[in-house]
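Quick one:
INPUT:
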């Protein structure tokens, strides 16, 4: 049993560890996936902010100069395309449709194209048709070409860029601090910044920021340097639901395994208690049977019927032992009925004084040694509604224990108080007492104090369990007080 239990504990620990490691791996993978997703979105938001800011300036130029914006494409017979933008008078005739330029045949570019713009178009040529991504490159080239033209008229509105970027980020619930610099790539000179002053802002700890760069011009290479607050907390916030659910799953599993282990330990304890109970009750049942058998055998074999005095003595001995045996059987049957919830109380109005007097008289007759008992009832006569048989057994059990578990001459005090619709009964003795660490267990079925903590009195650990069960059936409570060597006090509270 011990060996198999160790294996069960080991398997439980390994199972929990495996689940925990898998959850950590899964959460870590999810975290990195969200980090990548957030960073990709920030990159797209920067590109979109550049696009919106750029065309906002282009439209402003059109309105101020009363000109229309035209984007022109140049293509050759190899699939190469270049784009540029110009502003024409609104009333002018639209140019001829763009034609493919057969560069190998020596065909010139469109009319009006200066040398500077030719270099821009040559540098930004795109191979269209190689794959689908070339369409995206075409859009980027258009955006960069437009920058080359418009930046010479209106500089980049970095405040507009920042506001558009902020709005895009907030759409994805990314409330991140950020600032922007525009740098010339040839010498890393800061051309403009969204914060006051030039160079690195003194009140920003750049170690807490991630750097994103976006090259927006090719002929005069310039780029946005966007410093965005780390997305770690944003990614963790996006995982809140997953983290909470994972924690709850692990908690439920841990509690389930803990309950299983507790249940196994409890079952092991119950099995041990049942073994002890079987041993004790067998001994207790055999004792009155053996005494009665010996007494009857003596009467038969030694012809004691003629000796009336000795015969009566042996017959009374048999009667007492059979009564003791009957009491033990009744308690065991009561426990069986309680387990099946078949106990039905017969409630009647009875006098506590009369009931206690009968119990004391019966205890004095059957007790192997004399004891003193003191009664203290307030008021002098107390009545209550209870089951006569079970209340008799409850008090008889407590008084019997008070006599048995006292090493010196037993002195018992029974106090009863009736007030506020309740009756409070205290049974105090001067016995060996019960240590505090065992008090919470003494009402458990089959439980007995360790042998080093109890006297040599035999028992089977169901008396106090019976007391608690029957008191609860009456709607009352039972508690215990006292210290080792100073006696024990059992307190029963019942509705009156």
């Amino acid at each position: 049993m011990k060996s198999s239990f160790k294996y069960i504990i080991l398997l439980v620990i390994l199972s929990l560890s495996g689940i925990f490691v898998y959850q950590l791996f899964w959460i870590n993978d999810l975290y990195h996936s969200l980090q990548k997703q957030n960073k990709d979105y920030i990159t797209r938001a920067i590109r979109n902010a550049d696009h919106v800011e750029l065309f906002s300036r282009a439209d402003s130029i059109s309105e101020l100069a009363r000109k229309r914006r035209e984007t022109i494409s140049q293509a050759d017979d190899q699939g190469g395309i270049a784009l540029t933008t110009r502003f024409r008078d609104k009333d002018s005739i639209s140019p001829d449709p763009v034609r493919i330029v057969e560069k190998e045949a020596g065909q010139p570019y469109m009319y009006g194209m200066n040398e500077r713009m030719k270099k821009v178009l040559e540098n930004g040529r795109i191979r269209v048709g190689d794959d689908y991504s070339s369409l995206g490159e075409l859009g980027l080239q258009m955006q960069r070409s437009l920058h080359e033209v418009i930046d010479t008229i209106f500089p980049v509105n970095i405040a507009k860029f920042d506001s558009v970027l902020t709005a895009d980020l907030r759409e994805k619930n990314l409330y991140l601090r950020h600032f922007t610099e525009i740098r010339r790539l040839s010498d890393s000179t800061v051309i403009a910044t969204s914060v006051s002053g030039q160079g690195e802002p003194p009140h920003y700890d750049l170690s807490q920021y991630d750097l994103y760069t976006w090259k927006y011009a090719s002929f005069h290479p310039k780029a946005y340097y966007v410093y965005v607050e780390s997305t770690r907390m944003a990614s963790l916030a996006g995982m809140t639901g997953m983290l909470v659910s994972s924690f709850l799953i692990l908690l439920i599993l841990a509690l389930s395994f803990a309950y299983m282990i507790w249940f196994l330990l409890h079952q092991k304890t119950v099995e041990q208690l049942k073994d002890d109970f079987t041993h004790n009750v067998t001994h207790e049942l055999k004792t009155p049977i053996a005494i009665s058998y010996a007494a009857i055998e003596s009467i038969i074999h030694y012809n004691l019927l003629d000796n009336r005095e000795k015969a009566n003595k042996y017959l009374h001995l048999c009667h007492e032992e059979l009564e003791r045996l009957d009491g033990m059987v009744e308690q065991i049957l009561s426990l069986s009925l309680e387990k099946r919830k078949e106990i039905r109380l017969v409630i009647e109005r009875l006098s506590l004084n009369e009931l206690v007097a009968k119990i004391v008289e019966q205890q004095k007759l059957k007790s192997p040694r004399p004891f003193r008992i003191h009664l203290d009832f307030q008021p002098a006569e107390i009545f209550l509604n209870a089951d006569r048989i079970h209340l008799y057994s409850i008090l008889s059990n407590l008084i019997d224990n008070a006599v048995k578990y006292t090493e010196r001459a037993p002195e018992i005090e029974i106090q009863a108080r009736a007030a506020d619709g309740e009756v409070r009964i205290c049974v105090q003795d001067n016995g060996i007492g019960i240590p505090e660490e065992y008090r919470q267990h003494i009402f458990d079925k089959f439980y007995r104090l360790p042998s080093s903590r109890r006297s040599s009195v035999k028992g089977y650990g169901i008396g106090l369990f019976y007391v608690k069960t029957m008191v609860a059936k009456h709607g009352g409570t039972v508690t215990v007080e006292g210290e080792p060597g100073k006696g024990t006090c059992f307190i029963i509270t019942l509705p009156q």
